[in-house]
Amino acid sequence: MKRKGLPLAMRNRPAAQVRFDISESALKRWDSGIKAATTDDTENTINIFGIIGEDYWTGEGWTAQRVAGLLRYIGADQPVTVNINSPGGDMFEGLAIYNLLREHKGDVTTKVLGVAASAASVVAVGGDKVQIARSAFFMIHNAWFLVAGNRHQLREYADHLEPFDKAMADIYSARTGGTVEEMAALMDGETWIGGSESVEQGFADSLLSSDEVGHDTSETASAAAQLDRALARSGMPRSERRRLLSLVKDGTQTAADDEDTPRAVDGEATKLSAQLKGIFSHGTN
To answer: What is the pLDDT of residues 185-196, one digit of tens each?
Structure first.
């Protein structure tokens, strides 16, 4: 279907205290090495390989500002191909990128090479033509966020977030032809939809040929990000992962200036080391 038939996503960002994050299941199933098999410098291609929004560890990631800049560089009337392999991230940034693709004057083709989860699934359905690898997945769910507050504040945050879930359900409904209620039910269940099933259900228009998908084995992610993913696959809760990694990170940064720092983090570092040995000795899959 043409993008002009898709609804415009909400533009107002949620409360500043609400911080979106990546689904644990998406992080575990995401293979960051999946890329396009070939790159053609003559093509107008945007490769969204990574986190939607600002990455917690590297400060990088795919924001609406970054995509807008690339679209301006390509040209408003030019066709664009958007390759996607992303575990999601900031839902508002995903909706904003979706709007940019929807409003682009040239034809837009989105290709799901690995995973288009959460916020990335909204980006993926924003093309005139949506293609997906047979082994790839969409994942749709209700917006997932981190927030702190008392019971009154939490109720307020939930009420503020609800329209964004409705907006996503409306977008999926327009893309697939299913009802908003059906899409909301799939989101409630955090639903994973494989390549062939995505075509059958209308999330995608066709399957990609196998020779369009490659795998990059180079070490492109930061050590901290790779470690975070390994710990996530082991089942360690997000709060514990970030506490340990932040402690080690902070200790490393200040160790040169503070001779007491190595002793201060030694116990936690030993604990982390033991956990990592257990993870890598048994594998992470």
So the answer is: 999 999 999 999
Distance CA 32, CA 187 (A): 24
Torsion sign over Cα 275, 237, 235, 94: negative
CA pair distance 235, 87, nearest whole angstrom: 17
Cα separation of 231 and 236, whole Å?
6
For the chain, counts of helices (H) and of strands (E): 10, 11
Residue 173 parent element (H or E):
helix 151-176
> pTM for this one?
0.76
What are the E-state strand segments in the chain? 19-20, 34-36, 45-49, 80-86, 108-117, 129-132, 137-140, 145-146, 191-194, 206-207, 213-215
Backbone angles phi, psi at 61, to 5 degrees: 135, 175
Asked if 71 and 105 touch (Cβ cutoff 8 Å), the reply is no
- Closest alpha carbon to 29 in 239, 276, 236, 232: 232
In whole angstroms, give the CA distance from residue 262 to residue 20: 33
The Cα–Cα gap between 163 and 179 comes to 17
3-state secondary structure of 132: strand
Is the CB of residue 199 less than 8 Å from the CB of residue 207?
A: yes
- Could you report the per-residue pLDDT of 123-163, keeping only the tens digit for each? 999 999 999 999 999 999 998 776 777 888 888 878 878 88
Is beta strand 34-36 parallel, antiparallel or unpaired with respect to 80-86? unpaired
Q: Which two tokens stand for residue 94?
A: 């995903």
- Joined tokens for residue 48: 């969204």
**Burial (CB count within 10 angstroms: exposed 0-12, middle 13-18, buried 19+), residue 131:** buried
Domain borders along the chain are 3-215, 223-282
User: What is 3-215's CATH number?
Assistant: 3.90.226.10
